[in-house]
Amino acid sequence: MSYKILILEDNRLLLHTLEDFLSDHECECTLCECGKEALQKCYQEKFDLYLLDVKVADINGFELLKELRGANDMTPTIFVTSLSDQESVAKGFLTGGDDYIKKPFDLQELLFRIKAILSRSKELVDTKITINEHYYINLSRKRLYYCDAELDINLKDFELLSLLVRNRGKVVTKEMIKETLWSSGEDINEGSIRVYINNLKKIFGKESILNIRSIGYRFEA
């Protein structure tokens, strides 16, 4: 099974060394050199693990993960940083990190830690929710499947689908959608909700999601 990993690291040599090494071990890597770029990628795409440096431009690794955890993004995270003092290590875990590796480090040890975290994550929260005889979602990996084949949908579409499916037959209000899809630091665009709803209707059919005027939506697929 291939895993998608976002790597935030401003040292280009180390960044590409990590990419080459992890790519050889069935990992698909997305590379970022600054915090803002990483944050944008995290909001746009689905990842199985974040590998974060701390001392980077725009938004440091600690603040980045704090922002993501505040948006209910529980993606497993490993800090890889030169900050080795006890206060920094404590901060890394308190902001929601799952592991903390001090530079310099051994690549093989990093791989062992990544596999251990992904294995624990899969055992604890690998939740499959069946939508119908053909479709199901995997909450831990944030994936939609059709007859065991993964479908390509963006992260916002998935988060909305997950919310609707978990509340199947009930009205999901627009406020609930806003709280799920956007963090406090993001601009909320109600027009975007209609776009995401229409994206899901293209998959499940026009009658799959009922519009409750001025209130929200109900999933009936």
Plain-language structure description:
43% of the residues lie in helices and 23% in strands. It is built from eight helices and twelve strands. The protein has helices at 12-23, 35-44, 61-70, 86-94, 107-125, 155-166, 174-181, 190-204; strands at 3-8, 27-32, 49-52, 77-81, 99-102, 128-130, 135-138, 143-146, 149-151, 171-173, 209-212, 216-219. It has a five-stranded parallel beta sheet with strand order 2-1-3-4-5, with helices on both faces. It has a four-stranded antiparallel beta sheet with strand order 6-7-8-9, with helices on one face. A three-stranded antiparallel beta sheet has the order 10-12-11. Strand 11 and strand 12 (216-219) form a beta hairpin. The longest helix is centred in the middle third of the chain and has 19 residues, at 107-125.
Comma- or semicolon-separated keywords:
single chain, 221 residues, alpha/beta, five-stranded parallel β-sheet, four-stranded antiparallel β-sheet
How would you write the strand order of the largest sheet? Answer: 2-1-3-4-5
Mean pLDDT: 89
| Intertermini distance | 29 Å
Secondary-structure-derived class? alpha/beta
Helix proportion of residues, in percent?
A: 40-55%
Counted beta strands: 12
Largest sheet: number of strands, sense, barrel closure: 5 strands, parallel
Radius of gyration: 19 Å
* Form type: globular
Number of helices: 8
Range of strand content = 15-25%
Task: Give the SSE string.
Answer: EHEHEHEHEHEEEEHEHHEE
Unreliable spans: none
